[in-house]
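Same chain as my last thread, 476 residues:
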Amino acid sequence: MEEYPKQTENLDDPPNSRLFVVTSRSITEDELRESFSVFGDIHGIWVVKDKQTKESKGICYVKFAKSSQACLAMEEMHGKVLMEGTKPIKVFIAQSRSSTRHRDVEDEELTRIFVMIPKTFSEEDLKDTFKEYGDIEYCVIIKNKATGESKGLGYVRYYKPSQAAVAIENCDKTYRAILAEPRTKTTASEDYSGGAPRGDYAGGGADSMNPYAFPMADPGNYSVNMDYRSGDRSGDRSGDRSGDFTRCLMMSTRAALTQEQIFSLFDIIPGMEYCELQRDSYGLSKGHALIRYGNLGSAVYAKEKLNGFEYPPGNRLAVNFVDDGEDRSSPVGRMAMQFVATQMMSAAWNGHSPSQAMKPSYPAVAPMPRVQTDVNLPPLKKLAPPDSKAKERLFVVFSPAPLPPDVLEDVFCRFGSLIEVHLVPGRKVGYMKYADKQCADDALAALHGRVVNGVKMKVMLADPPREESHKRPRTY
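reply #2:
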């Protein structure tokens, strides 16, 4: 088919059931149907053709009956070779035809679901209910910031888009499961206990409940979190609320920090009793750590100085108070806490800049290498001459944001013959040009799916330059 049929109102019903596929121009509609039909009921395939020559542009759309079928097809077919002698295909979830966004559908938007649950549910109950549909990365229950009670709402984050789609399609309808709205700068700063509702779901924008998201916190935010993911963002600087300060802190990070690095950072403030990086059942970092101090003053000072601190540069830490289980309801307890907090805040706000306040006689954190990754990288190698002919190009997708060009050059040059690094302005993608194909293949094999400085990279072979004008870059 050359274009969509006239009746297009059902192309996005259900949502995320249509694929955008970049293929070789020689791949036919029948070959695409044969390859993709194993994943479900195909409602249509549309091959985009040149209006003048009627030849395929190497782009097509595949519409499935269910979003879970489309997501599974994307996961299984992305990067596969359909015919010998052709490039691996690229498969993404297509944007809604009514979408006005200029960015593409990303995996984060397809793996998190929002559900209505009984208020008696614990996070374990939530996980037990939805684990039958796939591997769960985390569950979050939205709680009332004042009482700590559940609001009867929650999030479930799966590792794969197809698992989230299966959960939405097959769970009990009373849960009213839908895909969670993507995190944005606006929603990330809302007070989620009373934020604007989404549809008929109260508090639907609770993106900061995600333990992996970092709120861009006000330096004067001293609020306690009975559940550390549902903090008050009122920005009260008076320090006069008895529940606002505890000796326990929860730190969230998007960079892959080690236990030793976190310990060294928080040990700058004297009095640290406990520091533990939270890990999942596979031993991987959950992106947050629990820290406890022996006195309230040290904890307040650590929260003031390290919340929003960039470590390593570009990775902003989020540090919040968590309930330490101690009773501070007595007048004496309230007075003691207010006194210590007032002293610490006075010292923090008067007479010293943040950079100066971090310097006094405490030992400095050991300097971190510029490149933080679990990849066993080869030694640095010289760049190829700028006028070298490019024998192979790699296409790289970054999540959540591109790495700086100097870091990319540091990483990709280690495989030899790197000519240059090129980032696409305004997008989370880039190209690495190599003068030797084998060097590019080695870089692809070593770096695809890896995390560098907290950024996950998807590395693929780029299409030949002559085809670039016939396609639009996509990210996933």
